[in-house]
Amino acid sequence: MSDLVLKSLDVVNFRSIRGHVHAPLDAKVVIVHGENGAGKTSLLSALELALTGGVQSLQRADPAYEKQLLHRSASDGRVLLRAVAGTSEHNFRADLNPQGAHSVDALDEKLAAFFRERSFLPQSLLGQLLQIYQDAGSDAASPLAQFVGKLLGLDRLDALEAGLKALIDVRNVRKNVDGWLVAENERARLDRLLAEQRKARRVFDEQIQTILAELTTLCTSLDIPVKVHEELLDRLADELGDERDADAFALLADQQRRLASIRREISDARSATGENAPIPATGSDEATRNFALWEAEHGARVSTIRSRVEAALPDLSMPSEPSQFAEEALKRLRTEQGQQSDRANQARIDIRRHAVALDERDVAVRQRDTIDDEVSRLSSSAGSLGSALAELTSFIADDVCPVCDRDFREVSGVTLSEHVHGKIRTLSASSERLLLLGRARSEVQVTIERLDREVESIAARMLGEEALAEVDRHLATTERLIAELEGLSEVLQEGGRLRAADIAARRAVSEAQSRHVSLAAARETLSSFARSVGAAAIEEGESFEAAASRVDQLLGTQAARLERRLSMRRRGTDLVATIRSAMARRQDADIQIAADLEAWNRAEQALGRAQILRDQGVAIRNAVDKVRSAIIRREFNDRLNRVWRDLFVRLAPSEPFVPAFRIPVSSTQRLQPKLITEHRDGGDAGGTPGAMLSAGNLNTAALTLFIALHLSVPKELPWLILDDPVQSMDDVHIAHFAALLRTLSKEHGRQIMIAVHDRQLFEYLRLELSPAFPDDSLLTLELSRGARRDSVCVSRRLSFKEETALFAA
């Protein structure tokens, strides 16, 4: 928009401007005049608000400035700026309300920033400009850095430098580069994991070597010819699993058990009877005859009662011995008797209680019906009506009803107050009776529900008449059996005793015969067994104990040797299994180490490639810094300082100290400008402009710096707007300043807009900047306002007129 020309500005109720002000701006030069407070700064601020959507100088002073933009006497306002570019017209607008300003149409952010920094110099910024650039710093967002970027077109270099800046510090690289921190963490994790895995593998190796040494000792003791090695574990396992020692140990254990059996038989035979003890005769056994007599006399009766008991108790198995049978049968029958008796008694109790509960429930139901009938005859609203009448008695003063205004004496002989009180007593008694009946009905209802549950419970468990009769019959049978068994108790006890004596006599004869025979053969048996196990036979005169002890000692020695060998074989088998397990874990560790080592190599290679790229990026950034710094030093020290020097010298020709920016000549990666003053005659640099220049020349230095910055960058907006820039200037400075403005307007194509408060200066500038050729133009705007009237803007347009008087002369 380098050809965009301001056309007009309409301001309504903005800051000190009250009402509507229309200011034409379509001229090469626009001069605004007004007394202090007339609205010059407000007019230029309105222009900035329309173009950028904000007022930068006010924002520096108060962040909440937007609430103060609307004139205090108005409820709304607006700012409308019109501009033309060729044949097209552009409108910029902002609306005002008590909460602030709302920008409707404005320049884009880039042009708005150019306007604020290069085209518009507010009055409040003039005295701060040098300090702003002196304290701007060296970051990319500072005003000076932005100016340098625009001046030299270093956007690409700046972007390249900013983009590669994070590569300098590896901590920033971890934040900005996806995967860098992940790769580092993965490598560190794999380092720790590989160290732990290698340590575990060494432990497995040490464990395997220790077990192999122990296994070598065992194989030597067992005379196993196989060499102990990891590759020969299968052969070692086969040798250690040989069953010959186990078979020999099993055979030896059988021999020891046989010897023990022979020794027990000899001992039992010799302890029970002597070697010459006589064998008792069976035919003389009186116990057998006595039991036979008892069996002939009582056997049939006992058999009959046994059958009846087994029929009564089919699930039980009775002992065959008579006395035990009697004891067990009586115990079981008495238990059954008690259970059947309890069941019959409970059944009769349930039958009686069921009938009583039904009667009680019928009585309760009738009582509930009676209560319900009485409740239905009582009014449910008796209590409410009684309360209402009680409230009404306070309004009864005589016999005239306070509700219907009728005299109660016309219908009754009693007074109205007595009649109402009687009615209240009746209603209160009905209410109390209704409450008592409600409580009584609740109690009766609870009783009915309890009786219903009880009737249902009894009916569910109550026995029928046939079942009860069956229980009674079974109970009578059980009682008869108990009585009969109790009557036969002595007979059964006698039969048991006789039967036990018969059995004992028969067993004694059998054992005596067996011992005499076995004792005769025991010596030959023990002698044969001794020869079979490799010991000497029993010698003549050698006792059983001596021979058995000798053979037992031999077998014990052989058993101890075989047990040691079996224990070593089991230990060897366990060691082989442990070695195999350790080898398997070591192999798993080797596989995992190989996989993790491959992953570690990938992470290391990735970090290596990334580090190469980082080094290349740092090298590129250093090269960019060197080129950028060289360009900045050359252009900044020469170009900008030259333009600033020319402008300052033109406005202040007698000032010996000239302000300038100084950037170090040595290579630096940071933009570090410094404001200094240089003497016209040369020599060392002086101090800052604030220390070397007067107040007027300091103002001139700030004004010329702004114009130099404006002229040093490409013309994006052809405007130069100045708010009262000639403060503290003398006549010489003002004359040179007017000549400078004329040059900017006539030769550089800038649209100049300047606001002044001094009347003489206004008239002087109007004369100096008057049109000098046909296309030239000048507009003057005079602002005024009153305490109770709207602001007024009077415009006057001056056009070029050819001077004919000089031609005539």
From TrEMBL:
Gene3D superfamilies: P-loop containing nucleotide triphosphate hydrolases. InterPro entries: P-loop_NTPase (IPR027417), Rad50/SbcC_AAA (IPR038729). Pfam families: AAA_23 (PF13476). Residues 9-63 form the Rad50/SbcC-type AAA domain. PANTHER family: ABC TRANSPORTER ABCH.3. This is AAA family ATPase. It comes from Mesorhizobium retamae.
